[in-house]
Write a structure and sequence with these properties.
Shape: globular
Strand order of the largest sheet: 7-10-11-12-13-14-17
Keywords: Iron, Iron-sulfur, Metal-binding, S-adenosyl-L-methionine
GO molecular function: 4 iron, 4 sulfur cluster binding; catalytic activity; cobalamin binding; metal ion binding
CATH class of the largest domain: Alpha Beta
InterPro entries: BchE-like, CHP04072_B12-bd/rSAM, Cobalamin-bd, Elp3/MiaA/NifB-like_rSAM, Methyltransferase_Class_B, rSAM, rSAM_horseshoe, rSAM_sf
CATH architecture of the largest domain: Alpha-Beta Horseshoe
Protein name: Radical SAM protein
Largest sheet: 7 strands, parallel
Cofactor: [4Fe-4S] cluster
CATH topology of the largest domain: pyruvate-formate lyase- activating enzyme
Radius of gyration: 22 Å
Number of domains: 2
Number of strands: 17
CATH superfamily of the largest domain: tm_1862 like domain
Low-confidence stretches: none
Helix content: 40-55%
């Protein structure tokens, strides 16, 4: 069966991201014997992509079309226009004008509100959550001439398929960011109040085959030798220590490709960060999310801000770049904790902190129940309209002004969160690793 898979994302804030989920589904479908073509509108832009995809659809004549929706919005309460879902819907509707083939929707953004988005777009099928098994089964049924009942399908994948990286698409993202993503496991054991990872992937940690992951890393090193890997696991250094065999194998095989990923300061042991750095870790997205002990507790985080300080200090000592994302306004937040959080983030400089005002409310995250109890959720809210949580007693405008004043003049604390996107895009286009090496050589 000829199957066209398309991304539907134009968001390049803070920088464009390779559509890894689409390539994972492509790998699963190709392994099942289907002829798969991947398309990404991002390199062409929201207008010019139409001509390109129309040519490809005419040449390929797909019998099934799959579309991945990555984001609903940019989770910035101060943004003028943050509803990214509208661009995705436009892509889907345009694709439907090009071919009569049935359509399957999927992806992390889609999976948050699958029934609503399916209704909004008019697509026949949707797959919520991980998609390898469900998409392959739907494609097999359609190839046999069957017509499965339209609607949303959910099925836990028996095996995590290796991605079928598109050289064309990866080449674009490598040129823009020098970053190639890879996933080694699914699941998140934590229960953070704002997060939908457990809903999308579950709490149980499920690992990809280690040798398979190492082969992917070797291929990336071979095809894009100056790329930085991005481990997109919900948390790389999970508390069950599933990551340790990978780190040790990379060191043992001298497969020390520069990498970054989501790292938690929780439950670190002596030597953990050193071994990660030895395996190639050059930067981290440190999962802090709140800036005081009171608000860390309010979000259900499993560590204190002192642990954040110690972790940042060790990472910086190892010449590992640190970026934290921090949300102000969550449960337990007061004007006093906002001021405390600003001081705390200034203390961990030169670690970078990206600050957000308010927390996006999403179904499937515990915070939505808190928001409902506090009367912050309208009865007709469907999840697609942006809704941001602020703790009782907080005025969003006052919090905004406190953050502007508190971070004024700081090179390392970024607020509003999109205010330095251009700088970050330029860094990645040059290559973070190259820039880091130049800085280390000067020192």
């Amino acid at each position: 069966m000829r199957i066209l898979l398309s991304a539907a994302n134009f968001c390049s804030d803070p920088y464009p991201v390779y559509p890894l989920g689409m390539s994972v589904i492509a790998g699963a479908l190709a392994a099942a014997g289907h002829e798969v073509e991947q398309f990404d509108p991002m390199p062409f832009g929201p207008e010019k992509y139409r001509e390109e995809v129309a040519k490809r659809v005419a040449a390929f004549r797909p019998e099934l079309i799959g579309v991945s929706i990555r984001n609903l919005d940019n989770i910035d309460s101060r943004a003028d226009d943050d509803e990214l879902i509208r661009d995705s819907v436009k892509v889907i509707r345009f694709l439907r004008t090009l071919a009569a083939a049935p359509m399957i929707l999927g992806g992390p953004g889609y999976s948050l509100y699958p029934e609503r988005i399916l209704e909004l777009t008019g697509a026949e099928y949707g797959v919520a959550g991980e998609g390898e098994s469900a998409v392959v089964e739907l494609a097999a049924a359609l190839a046999r001439g069957e017509r499965p009942a339209p609607g949303v399908y959910r099925k836990k994948s028996e095996r995590q398929a290796p991605p079928l990286y598109s050289p064309e698409i990866a080449g674009f993202y490598h040129g823009e960011t020098h970053i190639i993503p890879i996933q080694t496991k699914r699941g998140c054991p934590f229960r953070c109040a704002y997060c939908t990872y457990p809903m999308l992937e579950g709490h149980e940690m499920r690992l990809r085959d280690l040798d398979e992951v190492l082969r992917d890393i070797e291929r990336i090193r071979s095809e894009w030798p100056d790329a930085m890997l991005y481990f997109v696991d919900a948390v790389f250094n999970d508390p069950g220590r599933c990551y340790v065999p990978l780190v040790e194998a990379m060191i043992e095989r001298r497969l020390t490709v520069p990498w970054t990923g989501f790292v938690t300061p929780a439950r670190l042991r002596d030597g953990d960060l050193e071994r990660m750095a030895e395996s190639g870790m050059v930067a981290v997205d440190l999962g802090v999310d709140a800036a005081s002990d009171a608000t860390l507790a309010g979000l259900g985080k499993a560590f204190s801000f002192d642990e954040v300080r110690r972790c940042c200090g060790k990472l910086l000592e190892l010449n590992v770049g640190v970026t934290t994302s921090v949300m102000f306004g969550g449960p337990g937040e007061t004007y006093e904790t906002v001021a405390e959080g600003i001081r705390n983030l200034r203390e961990i400089e030169p670690a970078y902190s990206i600050a957000f005002s308010g927390i996006r409310v999403l179904d499937g995250a515990p915070l939505v129940d808190v928001a409902r109890r506090e009367g912050k959720v309208a009865p007709d809210w469907d999840g697609l309209g942006s809704l941001y949580y602020f703790a009782p007693g907080l005025d969003p405008d006052r919090v905004h002004e406190m953050l502007l004043e508190g971070f004024k003049g700081s090179r390392f604390c970024v607020y509003p969160p999109g205010s330095r996107n251009r700088d970050l895009q330029m860094i990645h286009k040059f290559g973070y690793v190259k820039l880091r090496n130049l800085q280390l050589a000067r020192n």
